[in-house]
């Protein structure tokens, strides 16, 4: 008998074009469960993530605070878009991938949204956040260093929605210092530890519940988001129509104030962060962790991420940004120093310049390659030991 190696047209027409039902007997030939270890593991992962979603569903069915927060979050996004703003989605690592997916979902609905990478934001992308926007932060721990470091630079008018494992805003560092009306927590906990349950430290159930909750947030009743972007575009187009310029009065004369004035020489004192605005980190136990430093920076936005450990040790923003991208958030300062990580800059290493020094002169002094990232201490002219404030060497070139 010759075996056919092709399916005839008549035979093909008899095949179903839809997937088989999950209860199809053809898929139930194994009576005692899978014998292959990889299949068993895969089924366990699927079961664990299904249980995590069931746990999330029960939370939002029974917890009034979670329900209220979800309602507030939908209303806040609606207000932002109606006022011409947008939803800015932000996260790091796997959470960043979820944020990008949610951004794409919003744009698919015709509602303007954008993704912001927190590290890139600190290097110049913060301008995309406008006062009428809403910021969505995704972090299972609720204390991702890059996100914590971003908070001092967020406009005070921008509400923050946080998807984290925390059940109450008071325990979530991302919202600890937000006014209650400007911070919204959307809890996304998991029912059991991922590493203990599945055996790997990579995010599994936590990313599943975060993605599911994000989809739930962006899929409200149709009337909530319908036509929002269209309304915002109409207002924007009306506002962009320029008014006709008024003709100058023939007798109008140029005032003295409008005449060109000689430019003043910019000085480093104009660029410093005053020392009285730079906080000193402290803890009840006396042991200072990286997390404590980050939280101190958040509480004092006027310091622009400068933090003091002591009167003779300061942490510049450049070092704080570098540390925020590490996994050492719970490590104390002595352990960080033992690893050789860039950390504090001691008084002996400050580049001390009088406050009357011009920016051009300061640039020449720090233009050597070894000066990159150095700390400039601005001292009183009449008292060289009295420090007025600090700036980083790179700040001297801002505005060029």
TrEMBL record:
GO terms for biological process: carbohydrate derivative metabolic process. Coiled coil: none annotated. One of its GO terms (molecular function) is isomerase activity. SUPFAM superfamilies: SIS domain. Residues 77-224 form the SIS domain. InterPro entries: SIS_dom, SIS_dom_sf, SIS_Kpsf. The keyword ATP-binding does not apply. Gene3D superfamilies: Glucose-6-phosphate isomerase like protein, domain 1 (3.40.50.10490). The keyword Isomerase applies. Keywords: Isomerase. It holds the Pfam family SIS. Residues 236-250 have a biased composition (Low complexity). CDD domains: SIS_Kpsf. PROSITE patterns: SIS. Residues 220-270 are annotated as: Disordered. This is Sugar isomerase, KpsF/GutQ. It comes from Aspergillus nomiae NRRL (strain ATCC 15546 / NRRL 13137 / CBS 260.88 / M93).
């Amino acid at each position: 008998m010759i075996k056919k190696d092709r399916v005839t047209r008549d035979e093909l027409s008899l095949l179903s074009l839809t997937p088989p039902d999950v209860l199809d007997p053809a898929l139930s030939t194994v009576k005692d469960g899978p014998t292959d270890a990889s299949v068993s593991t895969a089924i366990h992962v699927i079961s664990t993530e299904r249980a995590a979603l069931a746990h999330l569903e029960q939370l939002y069915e029974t917890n009034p605070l979670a329900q209220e927060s979800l309602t507030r979050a939908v209303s806040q996004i609606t207000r932002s878009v109606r006022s011409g703003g947008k939803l800015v989605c932000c996260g790091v690592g796997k959470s960043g991938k979820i944020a990008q997916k949610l951004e794409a979902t919003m744009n698919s609905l015709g509602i303007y949204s954008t993704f912001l990478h927190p590290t890139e934001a600190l290097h110049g992308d913060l301008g995309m956040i406008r006062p009428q926007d809403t910021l969505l932060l995704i972090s299972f721990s609720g204390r991702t260093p890059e996100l914590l470091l971003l908070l001092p630079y967020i406009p005070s008018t921008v509400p923050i929605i946080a998807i984290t494992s925390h059940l109450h805003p008071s325990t979530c560092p991302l919202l600890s210092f937000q006014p209650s009306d400007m911070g919204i927590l959307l809890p996304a906990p998991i029912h059991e530890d991922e590493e203990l349950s599945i055996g790997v430290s990579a995010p599994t159930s936590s990313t599943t519940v975060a993605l599911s909750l994000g989809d739930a947030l962006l899929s409200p009743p149709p009337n909530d988001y319908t036509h929002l972007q269209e309304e915002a575009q109409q207002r924007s187009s009306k506002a962009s129509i320029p008014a006709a310029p008024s003709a100058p009065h023939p007798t109008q004369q140029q005032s003295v104030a409008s005449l060109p004035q000689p430019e003043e020489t910019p000085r480093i004192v104009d660029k410093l962060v005053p020392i009285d605005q730079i906080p000193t980190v402290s803890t009840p136990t006396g042991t200072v962790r990286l997390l404590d430093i980050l939280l101190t920076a958040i509480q004092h936005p006027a310091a622009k991420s400068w933090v003091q450990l002591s009167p003779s040790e300061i942490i510049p923003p450049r070092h704080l940004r570098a540390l925020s991208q590490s996994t050492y958030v719970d490590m104390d300062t002595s352990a960080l120093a033992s690893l050789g990580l860039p950390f504090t800059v001691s008084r002996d290493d400050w580049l001390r310049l009088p406050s009357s020094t011009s920016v051009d002169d300061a640039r020449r002094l720090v233009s050597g390659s070894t000066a990159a990232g150095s700390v400039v201490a601005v001292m009183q002219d009449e008292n060289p030991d009295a420090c007025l404030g600090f700036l980083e060497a790179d700040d001297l070139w801002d505005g060029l």
